[in-house]
Design a protein that fits this description.
The chain is mostly helical. The protein is 69% helix and 0% strand. The chain has helices at 6-19, 26-36, 40-55, 59-75, 85-101, 106-116, 119-128, 133-151, 163-177, 183-207, 215-221.
Length: 236
């Protein structure tokens, strides 16, 4: 029934069933269940009612709920419809005001980084709490994303940007990964580091040559396998 989106819908149902009976989260739970059932109009009414309800609560309640929902969403990222647009806007508002009133508190910066997808907030939270593994992981991933962008045209033997900058990003990611203590996350990021380290090393060697082969062909001849992007060009 749910085909490719199965994890999202199953997650909405499980979360909705849990939260609908929790104090203060009834409308949120109802939103999740309605969204899972495809009742989109009813779901948006419920999430707006939830936001209005929370907005009328005390500042402490708003902040506790913001932290709860951000943590919930972060831990269930396959449930991509969990934070509806009206809720996300409200969370940003609560978290932004929180950072202004408590500028030395890492918690609102961390979750503001998550809901706004702004790595600078994660970096600020990391400055305030260097041991927070969510921040460490997200900043390291941002470095990998930067490398991924610079290398996504290597299928055409084209490197975007500077190899030196990419290598610095890789070094920064490696430094952060060493601080992780959660084995599963650390192992995953170490694998990602190894992949990009090999990719950049191969490109550095290839770029010094005058090879008639494309970079993917040269890598294949060396027994190296990488996940090259498929580039589609559109005529104007």
């Amino acid at each position: 029934m749910h085909y490719w989106n199965q994890d999202n819908f199953e997650g909405l149902r499980a979360i909705g069933e849990k939260y609908i009976s929790m104090e203060g989260f009834g409308f949120f739970g109802k939103y999740c269940l309605q969204k899972e059932q495809g009742l989109n109009k009813q779901a948006i009414v419920s999430i707006r009612a939830f936001v209005a309800d929370v907005r009328s609560s005390s500042q402490k309640v708003q902040r506790n709920m913001a932290e709860e929902l951000c943590s919930l969403s972060f831990g269930n990222r396959a449930v991509h419809q969990l934070l509806a647009y009206p809720l996300k806007i409200f969370l940003k508002e609560v978290l932004t005001n929180w950072t202004k009133e408590e500028p030395q508190n890492p918690i609102p910066y961390k979750w503001l980084g998550y809901v706004s997808r702004d790595i600078s907030f994660f970096e600020r939270a990391h400055e305030l709490d260097p041991k927070d593994e969510i921040c460490i992981g997200q900043i390291a991933q941002a470095h990998f994303n930067d490398i991924d962008y610079q290398t996504h045209h290597l299928s055409e033997s084209l490197f975007l940007g500077s190899l030196k900058d990419a290598q610095l990003s890789l070094q920064s990611a490696e430094s952060l990964i060493t601080k992780l203590s959660t084995n599963k996350i650390k192992s995953k990021m170490q694998s990602e580091f190894k992949y990009y380290h090999q990719l950049l090393s191969c490109w550095q060697k290839y770029s010094r040559l005058s090879s008639a082969k494309s970079f993917p062909e040269w890598c294949a001849a060396k027994g190296m396998s990488f996940d090259f992007w498929s580039i589609v060009h559109y005529d104007q």
